[in-house]
Amino acid sequence: MLILYLLFFSGVNFLIYNLLTKDIKLNTRLIICVAILLIIFLSIQFFYLHREFVSNTYFNGLMQLSLGIIIIHFVIKFIVSLILRDFEKMGNNYSFIKDFLINFFDFFRYKLVYVLVFIYQGYSLFSWYHEYSNQ
Length: 135
Known about the structure:
Blueprint: H1 2-21, H2 28-47, H3 56-90, H4 95-133
């Protein structure tokens, strides 16, 4: 069951990444198939609560982390626009600092957030599985 949860959250995070960045060109059918599989998994999670599944509140907390990626993405986009606006007022004297800050925030927005969220989700699921298997 742990592997299914890890696959589910990696799929959700990947779909969010693909939706927000459009870096990876995927076939529309593939995106629809993955979305349908995720919806089926969600339905099973909420309507067929079995002892081997995590509780719905625990699952909702992990899903909120994935949805929080969207909020973080747009907050950082807003911060970058503020940085660009402020550096335009200063002139070209600080272009190195501007480029560094924009690259840092873009790296955080496009890469690091997804990795950190998935690591936390995986850690939470492994700790849940460890407690579940010891019962």
